[in-house]
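Changelog excerpt

This revision adds worked examples to the README so contributors can see how folded entries look when concatenated. The first example is reproduced verbatim below.
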Amino acid sequence: MISALQVLSVLLSGLLYFGFFFLNDWLFSGLEAHPGANWIYLPAGLRLLNTLLLGGEGAIGLLLASLALSFGVVHDDPVTAAVSPFISAGVPYLVYRLALAKGLPSTLEQLSPTYLSALIFLHAVATSGLHSLWYAMRGVSQSFLSGFSVMFIGDLMGTLIIIYLIKLLLMVWDRMSNVTPPI
């Protein structure tokens, strides 16, 4: 049976990804190399964050939002549009599952900078690699290498920005909650 929390997690994940897609377009539209490849791509950070925090529900939310965006905004070709969302949602989920197998700590706060950096790097390489391969095969980008370089940098930058911003906010929250008010 599906719980209300699971449905809420799927909806939150999808809405955040959807919103950050348009925020990224507004902030960095001039940095788009081709459809689906930006030099800074904040939604890539949401892909990893949603799966690290919400697991399968996060991946499902990403998939639903990616399908809506892929068919509605990004791609004209239905075959390209159909496969891209599975890369967008599947790769971060696989990175999450790999991290679980390697002893992922229970909270984002407990992740060491080294472990978190490795997850971010793996996520950026895998996501941009598979997307670039798919886009080169479909003729969306001129070549695998040109697409990969843009997507890797964009995914890496976007993921670093989002993950470390959230980590910073969690640290500030923790410090503020441990401060005792003056009497």
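The second example, added in the same revision:
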Amino acid sequence: VGSPEGLFVRVGRLMPVFGLRLAEHDDYTRRYGGVPLYSESYGAAVEYIKNQYEAHVSGWVKDPLIDAARRDNGGAAYVETRLTEAAAVGAEGMVQVTTDDKQYRGGLTGKYLLKGPSVLFQAEVQVDNQHIGPCYVTALISYVMGSWFPREDMLVDVGWGHFDENLRIKGLDRDALDLNVHWFTSSHFEALLDARVELIGQASSNVNASGPTGAYV
């Protein structure tokens, strides 16, 4: 009882354990990667956690009570192993089924901690294959983040995301550069600075395919 290792079973309203599970919900691998904000649904998860590795299998059904962000039945699996005290790699897969389409996701994750300056690097790349009748669309989603802890009550994140919603059509890609500064003033209150610059269609060789540059703070 109380051990962080072993077999765990959860049943209820939950978010599947999938990918990096970053706190910033607008990061591309969350927003477009199968685990967007408010997408919890009713299901179950079986997890086995040891110090050197962990494995998670989740299954869920469409929320019968509310119009949720995700309207599918599905399942997901995620495994991660610690290569060293500072490095870890993971693999993931997800199936989502609705009345209109089926989506099959697969991806890889990586983590590396620089203990000296206390900087954590995290990366995830994901391929999403969406089938709509006889047609299909293949998307590419990726995100890289560096997190620096200058002191115990502060966290600074710098991240870069890339999302191409259809690899067969040029000019649909978008890139985002993010800056997040967290100040944990107490155990119950946090101040957050959130900033982003987003570019659309910059990877296309057609200059007319690029969209406007957007930003917010």
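Reviewer comment on example two: Residues 95 and 180 are 31 Å apart (CA to CA). DSSP finds one helix and twelve strands in the chain.
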